[in-house]
Amino acid sequence: MLDQITELQEAGLRAVAAATTTDALEELRVGLLGRKAELPNLLRGVRDLPPDQRGPAGKAANEARQAIQSAIDERVATVAAAELDVRLRAERVDVTLPGRPEPVGGLHLLTRVRRQIEDVFLGLGFDVVEGPETETVHHNFDALNHAPNHPARDPGDTFYLAPSTVLPPLPAAAGAPTTADGGPLTRLLRTHTSPMQVRIMEREDPPVAVIVPGRVYRPDSDATHTPQFHQVEGLWIDVDITLADLKGVLLSFARAIFGEEREIRLRPHFFPFTEPSVEIDVSCHLCGGTGHRTDVAGHPRCGLCKGTGWIEILGSGMVDPNVLTAVGRPAYDPERVQGFAFGMGIERIAMLRYGLDDLRPLYENDLRLLGQLA
Asked: How many beta carbons lie within 10 A of that of residue 190, not counting itself?
């Protein structure tokens, strides 16, 4: 596969260099990097390779895609300027035409970070899928092994939706919250992207390797919480998947996002839908994992990691057998298959990467802040 990736990269770069119009470059972009192009299809096939070949193949394919995209961007800038010069020479000069302003605008910080995360996991052989933002209590809680009295089910921690007069009624779990007239609340705004674990397994047989980015909702509002925020869920189900696979995947992610020198550690934790459960810390990129700012006189205590040298970035663990059983399909017999899941907040990754101490400005559309981070 590495030879095939190299050939695709070289052929793509030659085609880009030979293109003479912006229209031709756009056709090349779709043909080389679009969803149906050969290189993205190779990325999707990385997960089918032997484990020792997945990392090099995914990295090579990702680097090839980035090289082609960079070449296209550079060529577009050159060709567009040449096309403009031709038009200006051919057209009559309008002295009333305003001066050409500097380019303005760009992707929001959260959109950029989300796409960077997606690029990393595509390179590792994961697919990107999305799910509904209005969920059933079954998919959001019951199928994910949440106990009937779990605090997250409380109406104070979850945005429940009033019973619909259009959608068919759903069965209510024991102890489910109710409306003022006693009717069960069975639909809600999803509190995490984890419900797509069950939805994916309900429709696809293993092996399954996906990430699920999207908006989620909880009634919180302070410096580190907002009522609406963004998460990325990850799921990999196959035969003989272990915590070692989880650690390898997340180490590759941490180094791609925070730097090649980063290390990770696993700490025991508890989540209803994983067993065993672990929280993941990444070595602090600001102090290099020492706990002290070596770039500042006197080596003061690092404020980002609070002197520990580690930063918590996500929760994860091996998928609980009860979750596999709840899917209700023989292909997910917990005696035959296993896997891991993880979830991270995009806002938290953005805060750590860009040194923010309050995520609320990300939603206030202050161009002074967004311009600094562009």
From this structure: 24
Non-local (6+) Cβ contacts of 357 within 8 A are 223, 351
Averaged pLDDT of the chain: 85
Going from N- to C-terminal start, the domains of the chain cover 2-104, 127-133+190-372
Is the pLDDT at 93 greater than 70? The verdict is no
CATH number attached to the domain at 127-133+190-372: 3.30.930.10
Selection from 58, 75, 54 nearest residue 12 by Cα: 75
Tokens of 299: 């080596």
Q: How many CB atoms lie within 10 A of CB 265?
A: 13
Give me the residues paired with residue 287 across strands.
none
Prediction pTM value: 0.66
